[in-house]
Design brief:
The complex is a heterodimer of chains A (about 130) and B (about 600). Chain A has about 130 residues and is an alpha+beta fold. Chain A has helices spanning about 5-15, 15-25, 35-40, 45-55, 100-110; strands spanning about 30-35, 65-70, 80-85, 90-95, 120. In chain A, strands 2-1-3-4-5 form a 5-stranded mixed β-sheet, with helices on one face. The termini of chain B are far apart. Classes of the chains: A alpha+beta (about 130), B alpha/beta (about 600).
């Protein structure tokens, strides 16, 4: 890249927004994929990749994706927990598939509507 | 696909010296091994500040702080945290005197109590990538001054902010810029003083290592305000990492047209050259520094004519310290009002009426959390040492803190609630200096500490003026005499008299401040001097000639059963005794090295 103009500063800033937001730990939504041995065996890695792809495709800059250990309900894996800033409690989604991910992100992350047929319960186990 | 996690590995000098680059390589190879290379990215950052627990890394966006890392920890760490999502407790930080680790960086008191302006990008960006600086709002302040502000408006903004020189002098920056600008000349120079020579001080090095573009942007704004087209950074050759990052940053800024001609297509040209210092402490003094850039011996001159009028090559020159320049873009971006809301006093009518913004300190010595901190002006020394610093090492008692580098004064416990600001520190006989902070505990001998720092300034005296060259030498002789137990009460009187003479008659600030450690210890710790002189006793148990190692026979036999470890380790063969018998030290042979004291597991060896 050669000489830049003043307008380019904003473009560079925009392009790196997600990267910088993540490094500052700032996010509106936090998606936590449970990746204990049970979760991984049930396909949690594919779920994590699917979540990342969906976030990327929608160009979302305020979603933190993280992973934690087994949630204790191994029969319902793969599982993930979604926390949205301002919502009363985190929501746990169970028996996930990549198709369900698309729907959950569209409905819950973007529109704030819990996808009831995939949800187990409100509330989260302590992750630390 | 965008990464979901960033591992911010500290690559400041301290962590690099502790193999953080190897840790980075290992992290990358382990991440590849587990197929996470598209999800997890490893980034090297500048100094994170918490040097005491390096090498360290922060996992973002969760803000998990891992410390004291070893290459061998990495496979397990990657497996646990990034594959299975479990924190590795053993590698988390646990505060002194506590049991539970603190996983999140923002919850650790060392970080939580800091206010970041100069170091706002530390640990967040890769300093060798200009785009990341821009992503954090970088060069917006430059764009603002070039499009919306006249040079005079920039100067007014800096004046209103209350920013004062961070190199130690505390001269109001806006006034310096204005004076320099108003001197008619075909050429004006700006200089960044990065010749940080204080032992135990690394504020400027870390600032350049973690955010070099902030310094460049500050210089650009200053140059625009003053009407300069040419700038210099005078940096120590002993700072290879800082030097390299600065070179990379200047190159990238040139490529983007942020240095060179017609910057942002405006009628403003500016270029920066780097000059490497050869290691003389005195070259941190402005006139000596300029002499050194010109290729002359680094010696200061009398300042009847200030450098803002006749400086480098006799042209008006504005010299500011690294930290001062790095404050400038933030002041322009957020406004003078925001900056002056932080700190002490009132600068609206009197530029010397307060200390505004933050100050970076390097915390060293007998404190638990050694490292680099940035705190608001007006914070108390107690908060710095006991909250951020985590208190004194090994549960010992605080004795004194020296602020302002080798020529700063020692401040006793009774003044710990002193707010840190330029005037307050000067009032008690010390100074802000460039921001070194060395903590002494009960085992430090204050006479010896004063001698140590005076020995440094004495050796670094350039020799041009007599008071500094001869005066400090004589002072050092007297201190030497006192620490070996040959001092007299008249020596204390002479020492004080000499100190005042050197302060008053030296040519530059080196001599003018070198006696500070002596004067403040004479003032606050006079009883220690008197103990050395009258009783030939060192209360800190540190002056070799005045102490004796003695074995307590009851502890030696009762607890240690005459273990003989001391005798085995004594390099002088001065310890007499057989296993299972009481041991004694032959004082005639004893070299007072203290090895026996360190190796005895039963605390049977005492110092008297």
């Amino acid at each position: 890249m050669g000489k830049i103009a003043i307008e380019d500063l904003a473009k560079i800033q925009e392009a790196a927004r997600y990267k910088i937001a993540l490094r500052q730990g700032a996010g509106r939504v936090r998606i936590n994929v449970h990746m204990g041995t049970c979760g991984i065996a049930a396909g949690a890695r594919g779920i994590l990749t699917a979540v990342m792809k969906e976030i990327e495709a929608r160009n979302l800059h305020d979603v933190i994706i993280t992973n934690s250990g087994c949630a204790g309900l191994c029969s319902q894996e793969p599982m993930m927990t979604i926390e949205v800033l301002g919502e009363p409690a985190p929501v746990k989604y169970v028996l996930l598939t990549p198709e369900k991910i698309t729907k959950i992100i569209d409905m819950h992350v973007l529109k704030g509507q819990v996808v009831k047929e995939c949800a187990l319960a409100l509330g989260s186990e302590r992750t630390r | 696909m965008a990464y979901r996690t960033y591992l911010m590995v500290c690559a400041g000098t301290g962590c690099v010296a502790n193999q953080s680059m190897k840790i980075k390589d290992k992290l990358e190879s382990e991440i590849r091994k587990r197929g996470l290379q598209d999800e997890v990215s490893v980034v090297t950052t500048g100094c994170n500040g918490f040097c005491a627990v390096g090498p360290l890394m922060v996992v973002q966006p969760d803000g998990i702080f891992y410390q004291l890392l070893k290459e061998t920890d990495i496979p397990f760490l990657v497996e646990e945290h990034f594959v299975k999502g479990r924190l590795v407790k053993e590698l988390l930080y646990t505060p002194p005197r506590e049991k539970a680790p603190i996983p999140k960086m923002s919850d650790i008191p060392f970080f939580a109590d800091q206010t970041l302006i100069v170091l706002r990008n530390r640990g967040l960006i890769n300093p060798e990538n200009i785009d990341e600086y821009i992503a954090r709002g970088g060069y917006q302040a430059l764009a603002k001054v070039l499009t919306l502000m006249t040079p005079d408006q920039v100067i007014q903004e800096i004046k209103a902010s209350g920013l004062r020189g961070r190199g130690g002098g505390g001269f109001p920056t806006g006034i310096k810029w204005e004076t320099c600008k108003n001197v008619p000349s075909d050429t004006h120079y700006v200089i960044c003083n990065a010749d940080e020579g204080d032992p135990g001080a690394f504020m400027d090095r870390s600032t350049i290592e973690s955010d070099p573009h902030a310094v460049i942007e500050g210089m650009l704004i200053g140059a625009y305000a003053i009407g300069s087209r040419e700038g210099y950074v005078y940096i120590r050759n002993e700072y290879p990492i800082a030097l390299e990052r600065l070179q990379v940053a200047i190159k990238q800024a040139r490529e983007y047209g942020l240095l060179g001609q017609k910057i942002f297509n405006k009628d403003f040209d500016f270029e920066i050259r780097i000059v490497r210092g050869a290691g003389a402490f005195v070259c941190g003094e402005s006139t000596a520094l300029m002499a050194s850039i010109e290729g002359r011996p680094g010696e200061p001159r009398a300042k009847y004519v200030h450098t803002v009028e006749r400086g480098l090559w006799d042209k008006p020159t504005c010299l500011n310290n690294v930290e001062t320049w790095a404050n400038v873009p933030q002041i322009i971006e957020k406004g003078a009002g925001w900056f002056s809301s932080i700190g002490t006093g009132d600068v609206t009518s009197d530029a010397w009426g307060g200390s505004k913004g933050t100050k970076v300190f390097s915390l060293a010595g007998k404190v638990n959390n050694t490292g680099l901190i940035e705190v608001p002006m007006g914070i108390t020394l107690r908060k710095i040492i006991f909250d951020i610093g985590g208190g004194i090492k090994d549960g010992k008692k605080f004795k004194a803190v020296q602020t302002g580098g080798p020529s700063g004064g020692f401040i006793p416990e009774s003044l710990l609630d002193l707010p840190v600001d330029y005037e307050e520190l000067t009032k008690v006989g010390s100074m802000m200096g460039s921001g070194g902070m060395v903590v002494a505990d009960e085992n430090n001998c204050m006479v010896d500490m004063a001698k140590y720092f005076l020995a440094f300034t004495q050796a670094e005296s350039c020799g041009k003026c007599v008071p500094c060259r001869e005066g400090t030498k004589r002072m050092l002789d007297i201190l030497e005499k006192i620490t070996v137990g040959k001092g007299t009460e008249e020596d204390l009187v002479l020492l004080e008299e000499l100190s005042n003479m050197v302060v008053e008659s030296s040519l530059c600030a080196l001599g003018g401040s070198a006696p500070n450690p002596v004067l403040t210890t004479l003032k606050y710790f006079r009883e220690e001097y008197e103990a050395h002189v009258k009783d030939k006793h060192c209360p800190g148990h540190s002056c070799r000639e005045l102490i004796q190692y003695i074995i307590d026979p009851e502890l030696c036999l009762g607890k240690g059963h005459g273990c003989h470890v001391c005798a085995k380790n004594c390099p002088d063969g001065a310890i007499v005794g057989e296993t299972k018998q009481v041991h004694t030290i032959d004082v005639m042979k004893c070299g007072k090295c203290g090895i026996c004291y360190d190796v005895c597991k039963f605390d049977a060896i005492h110092i008297e």
